[in-house]
From TrEMBL:
This is Methionyl-tRNA formyltransferase. Its EC number is 2.1.2.9. The gene is fmt. Residues 216-316 form the Formyl transferase C-terminal domain. It comes from Paraburkholderia pallida. PROSITE patterns: GART.
């Protein structure tokens, strides 16, 4: 099916690439894609194209990678060139998903139908950089995707539509990300189809109550503090998979803890110190917490791979009584 609506797309990671693929496959013309400049990645730190750039190149879509879109920023010439390119590229609407650059008002004013953002939470909860991680970490029962008309604020624009999904007790940021990426792709195609049909999209202002901010995830947050409750720690571990993982030090070795659950029914004696290993078995390593105990089921030693507890223990035996200590996770 072919569409007359022309869509400039701005996005960078896999979450955005899923939406770009859906828009392109639905038959909308995409005359231009904006994505972040290539970044060094992997062991060799070679420059790598973003998932969005890779998709665009594979499908013959023009790509621009300005380091900034702000005339008053650090890259005024590159920003001016990108703004000229946007103005010179005939289009009807711009779709933005996890792009990673601030869009100044000047950019928001260029597309005839403005800029539509695919945001990974139910606004106004979790505005900002890391909505998927923060929803799991906070123990939210559900999250979703909000399609939003962008304004100059941080995720403050009026809402077009939303779709919700429960957060399962086994969800990690990786699993929830993939589910939300698929939902976002579907929701934006429905929105564009409606915009083409009706010439406009209905918008509702965000509620003033319930605003929270999802700060960017810092590497130092990997540090697991066993003085916290087992429930909170289990959520932290799930929220930080795949990045930055949970980290704790055991006898001088920095271990990554990748999968954990509250160990229900384990009796933690009053003299067990937080971080103390209570039980070691192929089913997992049970660790005393400030409240309850945590069963760690997937671990990684320095220079090793993520392994289920059974395989990990074969290479690095642990014993009850050993104690995890808080790590300087900035070094992780």
């Amino acid at each position: 099916m072919s569409h007359s609506l022309r869509v400039i797309f701005a996005g960078t990671p896999e979450f955005a690439a899923a939406a770009l693929a859906a828009i392109h496959e639905a038959g909308f013309a995409v005359p231009l894609v904006l994505t972040q400049p290539d970044r060094p990645a992997g062991r060799g730190m070679k420059l790598q194209a973003s998932p969005v750039k890779r998709y665009a190149q594979e499908h013959g879509i023009a790509v621009a990678q300005p380091p900034s879109l702000r005339r008053a920023g650090k890259y005024p010439e590159e920003a001016a060139a990108a703004l000229d390119l946007l103005r010179a590229t005939p289009h009807d609407v711009m779709v933005v998903a996890a792009y990673g650059l601030i869009l100044p008002q000047e950019v928001l004013d260029i597309p005839p139908h403005g800029c539509i953002n695919i945001h990974g939470s139910i606004l106004p909860r979790w505005r900002g950089a890391a909505p998927i991680h923060r929803a799991i970490e906070a123990g939210d029962a559900e999250t979703g995707i909000t399609l939003m008309q962008m304004d100059a604020g941080l995720d403050t624009g009026p809402m077009i539509s939303e779709v919700r999904t429960p957060i399962a007790s086994t969800d990690t940021t990786a699993t929830l990300h993939d589910r939300l990426a698929a939902l976002g792709a579907q929701l934006v195609v429905e929105g564009l189809t409606q915009l083409e049909r009706d010439g406009a999209l209905p918008v509702t202002p965000q509620p003033a109550d319930g605003v929270t901010y999802a700060e960017k995830i810092g590497k130092q947050e990997a540090a697991l503090d066993f003085r916290r409750s087992a429930v909170a720690l289990a959520r932290q571990v799930r929220a930080f998979d795949p990045f930055p993982g949970g980290a704790a030090t055991l006898d001088g070795a920095l271990l990554k803890l990748w999968s954990a659950e509250p160990a229900d029914g384990v009796n933690v004696s009053a003299d067990a110190a937080p971080g103390q290993i209570l039980d070691v078995s192929p089913a997992g390593v049970v660790v005393a917490c400030g409240e309850g105990a945590l069963r760690v089921t997937q671990l990684q030693k320095p220079g090793g791979k993520r392994l289920p507890a059974r395989e990990f223990l074969a290479g690095m035996p642990l014993t009850a009584g050993q104690r995890f200590t808080l790590t300087d996770a900035g070094a992780a």
